[in-house]
Amino acid sequence: KSTVLAVEFSPNGKIIAVGNESGLVTFFDATSTAFVTLFETVIGVGKDITIQWSSSGRNVAIASGSTFVLFDTIFCGKVGVHPASSSRFLVRKVIQGGVNFTSLAFSPKGDYIALTDDQTRILNIKDDCSCVRVLDQQNVLSSGWSPDGAAFALVGKRDNLSIYDSRSSSKEWKLLFSIAVSETVLSLCWGPSVKKGLHYLAFAGEDTAPLGS
């Protein structure tokens, strides 16, 4: 009944999240042929939707327009305080931005999330999504950590592709590599390690073929 804008399986393949143009995000039980609805929420009507799961499946994040919501997917209630939750979904954090969110990405261990609007903030999930650092690159449309968590890349609209050393716990990450990109890059993806410490990063955008790797 409404155009589907995002579809993401949970890491174990048991749940599929579907977001549509009306702002409805539905989580289905993918282990059943009947696709039983586990949970539904409405976020950002008429906006683009991005859905990301943490690698463990414990958390799922949704960004739509200027709204970001982080869910816990294994909540089972607190005895005597809250009733048991059959859906297991619990809202952990809601952030309203001044402008639209354009990118989000979980760290490999799922303890941090990168959230981009007019800047990219690295949020500590275990500390109520407190901001631990800010990357000021403008027009970011895609970002992500390498599989080993050692590097973080971001790129966007006719701007630089930048790769940072994300192993540091300091406020400032060291910039490892940066190249100018003349086209708008809409997506990037890290490949698995082909040798210890060596990863491939592919990125693509307005062209019909990948822009580089």
Describe the structure in your own words.
The protein is mainly beta and 213 residues long. Helix content is 0%, strand content 49%. The chain is built from no helices and 18 strands. It has strands spanning 4-9, 15-20, 24-29, 37-42, 49-53, 59-64, 67-72, 90-96, 103-106, 112-116, 120-124, 130-135, 140-145, 151-156, 160-165, 174-180, 185-190, 201-205. The strands form five sheets. The protein has a four-stranded antiparallel β-sheet, with no helix packed on it. The chain is globular.
Unreliable parts: 81-85
The separation of the N and C termini measures: 38 Å
Overall average pLDDT: 87
Strand order of the largest sheet: 1-2-3-4
The helix/strand order is EEEEEEEEEEEEEEEEEE
Helix fraction bin: under 10%
Radius of gyration: 18 Å
The share of residues in extended strands comes to over 45%
| Largest beta-sheet details | 4 strands, antiparallel
Shape: globular
Helices and strands in order:
Blueprint: E1 4-9, E2 15-20, E3 24-29, E4 37-42, E5 49-53, E6 59-64, E7 67-72, E8 90-96, E9 103-106, E10 112-116, E11 120-124, E12 130-135, E13 140-145, E14 151-156, E15 160-165, E16 174-180, E17 185-190, E18 201-205
Antiparallel strand pairs: 1-2, 2-3, 3-4, 5-6, 6-7, 7-8, 9-10, 10-11, 11-12, 13-14, 14-15, 15-16, 17-18
Jot down its keywords.
213 residues
Task: Summarize the entry for a quick read.
The protein is mostly beta strands and 213 residues long. It is built from no helices and 18 strands. It is globular.
